[in-house]
Write a structure and sequence with these properties.
By secondary structure, the protein is α/β, with parallel strands linked by helices. It has one domain (about 1-225): Rossmann fold. The protein is about 45% helix and about 15% strand. It contains eleven helices and eight strands. The strands form two sheets. Strands 3-2-1-6-7-8 form a six-stranded parallel beta sheet, sandwiched between helices. Strands 4-5 form a two-stranded antiparallel ribbon. Strand 6, helix 9 (about 175-185) and strand 7 form a beta-alpha-beta unit. Helix 3 runs antiparallel to helix 4 (about 55-60). Bound molecules: magnesium ion (MG). Magnesium ion binds next to helix 1.
Length: about 220
């Protein structure tokens, strides 16, 4: 028995979900050239630790008006953008009695479809929420989410430790500096930097274990249990 927490964007999924949401929304504003690249730049600054998480999200969602439909449509699309091999990896983890969670700084409607496709229940998915008006227009981020802080993953994992009897060891897998920060805060026993989709230099340099493929990840996990 063990517990594993996965990041979503650029880890379980090959894409950055919020960037995909914004790219979809920007199709309604074809005159706004260059904004997709601007959004990607902000994302990378966030994941490399040059910009804090909340500032990075707020800067991106301010680029153009967003509707909840952009998130739900992107969520369905991202089911087809999972990192190859994750379906089999989750099956293997379950058959070895691992409890699996996805903890994402992305937004629930764009993360849940993929997580459910991978067999996770709602209780195993943590992501940010949105506040919308009656027509779905996004007004703001749901500030009550445990994840809506610059140390959100640390808070969620601590919350789970307080409210459930999690099987040890606790393992966190992710590509971003916010994932590494949760390990440095001491909330998990093991951290595995994930570089199969994108390699963040700070994460690659500072992770106790860093993998560049799913087979490398499985090897590290086998050594943990
Ligand atoms: Mg990520």
């Amino acid at each position: 028995m063990a517990t594993i927490f996965f990041d979503f964007d650029s880890t379980v999924c090959t894409k950055e979900s919020l960037d995909e949401v914004i790219a979809l929304a920007l199709k309604e504003y074809p005159e706004q050239t260059g904004l997709v690249e601007k959004v990607e730049t902000i994302t990378n600054q966030g994941m490399n630790g040059e910009l804090d998480f909340k500032a990075s999200v707020l800067a991106r969602i301010a680029v153009c008006p967003l509707n909840e439909a952009h998130f739900t449509l992107t969520g369905e699309h991202l089911k087809h953008c999972l990192t190859p091999g994750f379906t089999q990896l989750f099956d293997w983890l379950r058959s070895n009695d691992w409890d699996i969670y996805i903890v994402s700084g992305g937004f629930l409607p764009s993360v849940s479809p993929s997580a459910e496709f991978l067999g996770l229940s709602a209780e195993q998915i943590f992501a940010n929420g949105l506040r919308t008006d009656e027509t779905g227009n996004v007004l703001e981020v749901d500030e009550s989410s445990l994840l809506w802080t610059n140390r959100g993953k640390t808070k969620v994992i601590n919350h789970l430790k307080d409210t459930q009897s999690l099987a040890s060891p606790l393992v966190l897998v992710g590509d971003g500096s916010n994932d590494l920060a949760a390990f440095k805060a001491g909330v998990v026993d093991h951290f595995i930097g994930f570089g199969a989709n994108v390699v963040r230099p700070k994460v690659a340099a500072e992770s106790p274990e860093f993998v560049r493929s799913l087979s490398e990840l499985k090897t590290v996990l086998k050594n943990i249990i």
